[in-house]
Amino acid sequence: MRILIACGVMLALAGCGSRQSLALKPGQELPPAPFGRAVQPTPNELLEPPTLAIPARSVELRTRSERREDDPFDLPPPESED
Length: 82
Prior knowledge:
extended
């Protein structure tokens, strides 16, 4: 029973976290501006993933069974020469 309580307390503490906005510590600087960009990005801009990092799904999901097309690269495994 004590183990369950201890695990519950540890799980609750693991969920705690700071909800403050990010800021630099005194003496720290942001990384240099990317090549070709005149303005230094803000910390929040640096945390946003670029569009290519999260591509949109372009494949239509199948709703019913269909026969597969012949795959020319689906070759049998090579035979071993024993």
